[in-house]
């Protein structure tokens, strides 16, 4: 282009042509040594050169459309930023394999709801668990039988946000994160900083953000959403309470609003249920192949590590009397000789094995993974081992340090609630119990079953509503709508989670502030003769029925759905929910 008004452009072009490899930040901006890439950098990132005529319209256009959002018809726009980060290799693979299903689900949701009146959000996605700096090495282990639950959830969240039409910024390392946050790390200037409207991260990622931004992270606090598989309860989250009551946890004391923690399953009403997608739909080619797949008299065992099988020999022997047993185990040593072991195989091959098996066998560990729901979606019944006693951070090594004391009653509590004929509870050490379940399963045909909340469309619907309605920056925002509130009294020794459940409802912590005053309680038939404010317990608002004395919560971070008291009656905020979409009330959509 003509250089009028840009006297230093030529010398800068020459300098950067020779020096662009000296600092990684230049290639992060797309400089690859070609004259075009250097000119684009020197005109759009720095201001030494004129903008190329063909790029002017492009830049104006991108700014003009950036505030309007449309449901996208493909995931291809995501791939460049996934491909250039090795930490996203497994995530990238899963997203690609499901592109057709996501696009179809986006179309289907658009046909049912008006999704056009939305503003595009700038969203930062920073999974701390995949960064090399975290030392977790989850991204590498994914290909050799490592745990996949978190990576599945990150993959599905990224796909969802992209299909919904938002602007995504992915980071997978500390330099990446600093670059996005506009913190100078090399020779390049900080880029024209994008203000993130929302930040999805995990506990490791949040600690990284806090370390980089120091005290200034606070300005982002209300925009943060923390992916947290097992959940964080209010007393573990509250810095002072946790310290005073010795609730030590490497993952606790973050002092966020408990609903900013996003869980894998809807087990903790104090947190928000984000979920993931159960991959079970197939391309037309694979579907043809599957039609010829007949169900065999076989069982597939849920356990990729040989160590999970230890001490389960008698349990396997009982199952082997009825079914041929298959496994996908990292090594055959230590598993019974009659097991046909396929080794660690791709997800699609596991699906094919599920399609030809009748039973998916739980070994009591790993807890709460995606696989049992994949089994159900493929028409395979799940044997779900009971845990005696229920396991929690108080009695089980695996849960030690988790920021909750939630009791896990079986290998998969969500599946437990689905029940028969899909899910069969068994005592692994009681052969009669195991035989009873196997006989019942083999005497019927199990149809494929998948709750809507674990389908692509279900996840798109849920995340869309959460992005549009859930607001922690504005104290005036009332969501879910107050019309959904149903007040229930929980007898002494009963938590709000239990009291709401008994009524076929769910505890909704967003409504606690509304119930936290004598005037409002009077509308629901609670007569407070005397009252006080206190932060000495997590059960407030509550009252003593004999003295009619009410106690209100003075610290809003200590509202809790899951705690109970020996003598006080709790006033519980409950709401209805859409069947198979528990995160949303009926008036929420």
Automatic annotation (TrEMBL):
Enzyme class: transferase
Gene name of the encoded protein: LOC116037737
Record pathway: Protein modification; protein glycosylation
Catalytic activity line of the entry: N(4)-{beta-D-GlcNAc-(1->2)-[beta-D-GlcNAc-(1->4)]-alpha-D-Man-(1->3)-[beta-D-GlcNAc-(1->2)-alpha-D-Man-(1->6)]-beta-D-Man-(1->4)-beta-D-GlcNAc-(1->4)-beta-D-GlcNAc}-L-asparaginyl-[protein] + UDP-N-acetyl-alpha-D-glucosamine = N(4)-{beta-D-GlcNAc-(1->2)-[beta-D-GlcNAc-(1->4)]-alpha-D-Man-(1->3)-[beta-D-GlcNAc-(1->2)-[beta-D-GlcNAc-(1->6)]-alpha-D-Man-(1->6)]-beta-D-Man-(1->4)-beta-D-GlcNAc-(1->4)-beta-D-GlcNAc}-L-asparaginyl-[protein] + UDP + H(+)
Organism superkingdom: Eukaryota
A Pfam family that the UniProt record links to this protein: Glyco_transf_18
Lineage: Eukaryota, Metazoa, Chordata, Craniata, Vertebrata
Lipid bilayer topology: Single-pass type II membrane protein
UniProt-listed InterPro entries: GT18_cat (IPR026116), MGAT5_Glycosyltransferase (IPR052105)
Domain Glycosyltransferase family 18 catalytic per the UniProt entry, residue ranges: 25-574
Compartments it resides in: Golgi apparatus membrane
GO MF, one annotated term: alpha-1,6-mannosylglycoprotein 6-beta-N-acetylglucosaminyltransferase activity
Record's protein name: alpha-1,6-mannosyl-glycoprotein 6-beta-N-acetylglucosaminyltransferase
């Amino acid at each position: 282009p003509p250089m009028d008004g840009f006297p230093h452009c030529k010398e800068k072009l020459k300098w950067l042509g020779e020096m662009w490899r000296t600092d990684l930040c230049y290639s992060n901006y797309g400089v690859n040594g070609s004259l075009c890439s250097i000119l684009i950098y020197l005109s759009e990132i720095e201001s030494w050169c004129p903008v190329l005529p063909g790029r002017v319209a492009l830049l104006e256009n991108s700014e003009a459309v950036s505030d309007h959002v449309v449901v996208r018809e493909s995931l291809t726009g995501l791939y460049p930023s996934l491909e250039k980060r090795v930490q996203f290799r497994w995530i990238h693979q899963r997203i690609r394999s499901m592109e057709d299903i996501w696009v179809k689900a986006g179309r289907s949701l658009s046909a049912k709801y008006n999704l056009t009146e939305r503003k595009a959000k700038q969203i930062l996605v920073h999974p701390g668990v995949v960064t090399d700096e975290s030392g977790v090495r989850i991204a590498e282990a994914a290909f050799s039988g490592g745990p996949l639950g978190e990576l599945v959830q990150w993959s599905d969240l990224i796909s969802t946000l992209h299909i919904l039409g938002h602007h995504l910024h992915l980071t997978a390392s500390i330099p990446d994160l600093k670059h996005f946050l506009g913190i100078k790390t090399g020779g390049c200037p900080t880029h024209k900083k994008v203000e993130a409207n929302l930040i999805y991260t995990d506990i490791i990622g949040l600690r990284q953000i806090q370390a980089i931004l120091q005290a200034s992270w606070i300005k982002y606090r209300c925009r943060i959403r923390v992916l947290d598989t097992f959940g964080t309860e209010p007393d573990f989250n509250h810095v002072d309470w946790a310290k005073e009551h010795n609730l030590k946890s490497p993952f606790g004391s973050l002092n966020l609003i408990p609903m900013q923690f996003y869980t894998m399953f809807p087990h903790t009403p104090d947190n928000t249920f984000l979920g993931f997608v159960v991959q079970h739909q197939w391309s037309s080619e694979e579907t043809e192949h599957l039609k010829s797949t007949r169900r065999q008299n076989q069982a597939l065992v849920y356990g990729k590590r040989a160590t999970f099988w230890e001490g389960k020999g008698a349990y396997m022997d009982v199952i082997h009397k009825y079914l041929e047993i298959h496994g996908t185990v990292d090594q055959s040593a230590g598993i019974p000789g009659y097991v046909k072991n396929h080794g660690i195989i791709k997800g699609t091959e596991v699906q094919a094995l599920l399609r030809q098996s009748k039973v998916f066998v739980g070994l009591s560990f790993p807890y709460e993974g995606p696989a049992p729901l994949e089994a159900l979606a493929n028409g395979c019944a799940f044997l779900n081992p009971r845990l005696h006693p229920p396991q929690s951070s108080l009695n089980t090594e695996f849960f030690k340090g988790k920021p909750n004391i939630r009791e896990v009653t079986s290998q998969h509590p969500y599946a437990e609630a689905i029940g028969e004929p899909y899910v069969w509870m068994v005592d692994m050490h009681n052969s009669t119990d195991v035989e009873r379940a196997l006989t019942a399963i083999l005497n019927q045909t199990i149809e494929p079953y998948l709750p809507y909340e674990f389908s692509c469309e279900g996840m798109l619907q849920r995340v869309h509503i959460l992005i549009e309605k859930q607001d922690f920056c504005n104290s005036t925002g009332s969501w879910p709508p107050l019309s959904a509130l149903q007040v229930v009294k929980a007898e002494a020794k009963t938590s709000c989670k239990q009291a709401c459940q008994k009524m076929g409802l769910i505890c909704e912590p967003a409504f606690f502030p509304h119930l936290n005053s004598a005037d409002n309680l009077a509308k629901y038939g609670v007569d407070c003769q005397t009252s006080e404010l206190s932060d000495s317990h997590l059960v407030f608002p509550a009252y003593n029925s004999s003295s009619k004395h009410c106690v209100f919560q003075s610290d809003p971070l200590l509202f809790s759905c899951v705690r109970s008291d020996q003598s006080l009656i709790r006033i519980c905020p409950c709401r209805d929910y859409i069947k198979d979409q528990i995160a949303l009330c009926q008036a929420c959509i």
